Amino acid sequence: MPISISNFSTENRGRVLLLFLLFLLAMYEFVTAGFSAFAIVCLLPFVILFVYLAFSWRMFTFWTLIVVNYFIQLKDLRIPFPMSLADEALELILLAVALIDVRQDNRFNRAGNTMLFAVMIWVGFCLIEVFNNSCDLGINVGLWFTGFRLLALQLVWILLVFSVYISSPKILMTYLKLWAIFSLFSAFWTYKQEYIGMTAAEKLWMETRGRTTHIINGGTLIRYFSTFSDAANYGCHAAGTAVAFIIFGITNKLRRAKIFFLFVAAIVVWGMFQSGTRTAIFCLAAGMIVYIFLSKSVKIAVPFSILFGILAFLLVFTTIGNGNQQIRRMRSAFNKNDASANVRDINQEAIKKYIRDIPWGIGLGMDSKDVPANNKFKKLSTIPPDSEYVYIWVHTGPIGITIFLVCMAIIFAGGCLVVLFRLKNKTLIGIGAGFCSAFVSIQLGGYANQVLFQYPNGLTFFGGMAIVYILPYLEPEFEKYEKMRLAQIAEKKQKRLEKKQLARARH
Asked: What pLDDT score was predicted for residue 370?
């Protein structure tokens, strides 16, 4: 029997009324605010569904956060709201769910560590920055809060989310494998850009904003950026990722995982070279030097030192591989007379002249468009910062950059102490050392390029350090997990051996 509209409306009055109100709201937003607002309203039912899934299956939201954070900078992905909003919304949903469940399962106490101490020092300083009026423009809370969110609050969310949701060995290993799969996809996307072609959105970006920095040497060399915002971001991320997976691979007891992680590292290094990011070479080397220290093993230190010594010698003192433009580009990183390096030095000298008069910087969130043309510090706001550290230096002054460096050093030193003295399991020591080494890699990248808080680096590398601090909590369960996996592998080998012996006996 067919159902009439009137009968359906009578039986489902609440749903019909809700849909009708959403329709009216969508039409109103379309007429008054345009298509973007209209699209947001139309997506509300999906948002409601997502919130329901988030509260029903909280790991769904965590994995969604990891996926969104990694791919949000795809050139073809055009979202009608700020990129940071996606990450923050998911992180806050995750924390809200954890707070609701706190009586049943309180994992927030695991976040009470040295990293939280360092992050809160930085957050405290950034809170004081709200009173910064160095440019004599008055206190602008809106602009300050934008900078505060991006430079300070997101570190708090990352630390809390990873401390709460990386709660078992299985989740930890799934996270590492997911990161590995994404890294392989980025390498594949680099291959596609180089040998198959770019999408329309990528071509448009290359012909406009990326033209001067990504098409170089008279158009004969292209720096590929894969799924990232630009080549510098991609190259530095790839260096840190390669360091982590090399260490994960050589320290893992499971043969398949060992081979898989080392394979990922090799492919990621290839992608790193295609980015043409010269800083990435130093990021890779710095990360491996940290691991030599953390390994506490002569068997590891000696061959690694010899290998990197040979590679450094080949890059610095020979012309081997100069037929490849990407290798020539990387080799130029050791050229003290490089033009781009000189430009950075000139910019930093100009910044020093102005920054002496404002020890607190021009203020969080302040941009060139916010400083009037007749202002004394207009020039300072327009000089390209070139790196994350210079950006923090300009906006928070010598005081801010000093506090930030101290906080990063505390986070790193605390992580190293966990790896060196609190962990006993060799695989976990390798995971901790991998994250610590990768953290140094991306910090060095942030010294030379504006990549430290770019997507997906913030969540990936600060989240990695948060994982280091919770590894001691996971170690007892990880021991059982690893023994179980090794027993399963041994059992499978035994069964295969028995089958072979049985087959031979029959013949």
From this structure: 80
Q: What tokens does 304 get?
A: 């690694």
Q: Is the dihedral of CA 151, 153, 159, 165 positive or negative?
A: negative
Model pTM?
0.85
What the block records as the tokens of 219 is 């158009």
- Position 114: which residue type? T
Mean pLDDT by 10 residues, the chain (507 residues): 43 46 49 49 59 70 92 82 78 85 78 94 95 85 88 94 94 96 96 92 89 79 90 94 94 91 95 89 90 81 74 68 60 56 69 84 84 80 83 92 96 96 93 96 91 92 96 94 86 80 73
Sign of the four-CA dihedral 452, 458, 462, 464: negative
Confirm if 327 and 311 have CB atoms less than 8 A apart: no
Residue 473: Cβ-neighbour burial (10 angstroms; 0-12, 13-18, 19+):
middle
Q: Label residues 3-40 b or e (16+ Cβ within 10 Å = b).
A: eeeeeeeeeeeeeeeeeeeeeeebeebbeeeeeebbee
Reported as type and span, the H/E element at residue 222 is strand 221-222
d(CA 497, CA 495): 5
* Position 137, amino acid: L
Cβ within 8 Å of residue 69, ≥6 positions away: 87, 455, 456, 459, 460
One DSSP character per residue, 62-95 reads: HHHHHHHHHHTT-TT---SS-HHHHHHHHHHHHH
d(CA 445, CA 448): 5
Give the ranges where 449-462 is alpha helix by DSSP (H): 457
Look up residue 133 and give its amino acid: N
